[in-house]
């Protein structure tokens, strides 16, 4: 599902540059929530001193938040290079499907267990841009290579992050309910991220429709 949606979004042909600009806007709305979300989840963990999962999870989230800090700014730089004013990203009202993707994590963090966030992170970082994608998009879209720095950097960085996350999940003393929560979060993220990518592939009028 997600791989197919990704392939459709990055297919060659007319409209690739516009699809990429919509991708930058959507991903800025997603990524700017990453650090606040991890910090909130870490804070919830730190308020659970007797939970054997909470301590190591909080340490991981604090460290990973620092690794991810500023990545939303990378997307603003890419948008500017692609010919889009950064305030078109920062001032846009997030679409309902973006809120559905990210907002579920806030709910699970607040009302279930912060470990849910690991499923979300695993999907986002486990589906990083492929090596070479940035170069192909630059060649085929006609946009300058500087517009694809975030794609290029995440292709390099996220493999290492995925390995760290896999190691953490293996080491955490998760009970059955917590493992189920991580899995539910991951499945939700796959479905909503695929929906987001498919909507990016749509014509702009459909993407921006207030009735969706």
Key features of this structure:
12 helices, 0% strand, mainly alpha, 212 residues, single chain
Walk me through what this model shows.
The protein is mainly alpha-helical. It has helices at 2-9, 16-31, 34-46, 54-68, 71-81, 86-90, 96-111, 117-126, 133-141, 149-171, 176-201, 204-207. The longest helix has 26 residues, at 176-201. The mean pLDDT is 91.
| Structural class based on helices, strands and sheet pairing | mainly alpha
Number of DSSP strands?
Answer: 0
Unreliable sequence segments: none
Give the percentage of residues in beta strands.
under 5%
Q: What does the overall shape look like?
A: elongated
Rounded Rg: 17 Å
**Helix segment count?**
12
* Arithmetic mean pLDDT: 91
Order of helix and strand elements from N to C terminus: HHHHHHHHHHHH
Q: What composes the largest sheet?
A: none
| Secondary structure: helix percent | over 70%
Distance between the termini: 21 Å
């Amino acid at each position: 599902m997600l791989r197919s949606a990704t392939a459709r979004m990055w297919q060659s042909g007319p409209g690739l540059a516009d699809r990429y600009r919509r991708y930058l806007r959507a991903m800025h709305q997603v990524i700017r929530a990453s650090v606040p979300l991890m910090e909130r989840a870490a804070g919830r963990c730190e308020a659970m001193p007797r939970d054997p999962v909470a301590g190591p999870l909080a340490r991981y989230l604090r460290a990973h938040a620092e690794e991810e800090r500023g990545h939303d700014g990378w997307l603003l730089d890419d948008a500017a290079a692609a010919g889009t004013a950064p305030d078109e990203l920062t001032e846009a009202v997030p679409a309902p499907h973006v809120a559905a993707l990210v907002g579920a994590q806030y709910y699970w963090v607040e009302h279930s267990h912060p470990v849910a966030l690991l499923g979300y992170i695993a999907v986002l970082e486990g589906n990083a841009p492929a090596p070479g994608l940035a170069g192909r998009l630059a060649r085929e879209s006609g946009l300058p290579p500087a517009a694809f720095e975030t794609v290029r950097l995440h292709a390099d960085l996220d493999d290492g992050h995925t390995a760290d996350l896999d190691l953490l999940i293996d080491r955490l003393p998760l009970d059955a309910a917590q493992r189920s929560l991580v899995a539910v979060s991951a499945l939700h993220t796959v479905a909503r991220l695929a929906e987001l990518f498919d909507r990016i592939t749509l014509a702009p009028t459909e993407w921006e429709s207030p009735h969706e």
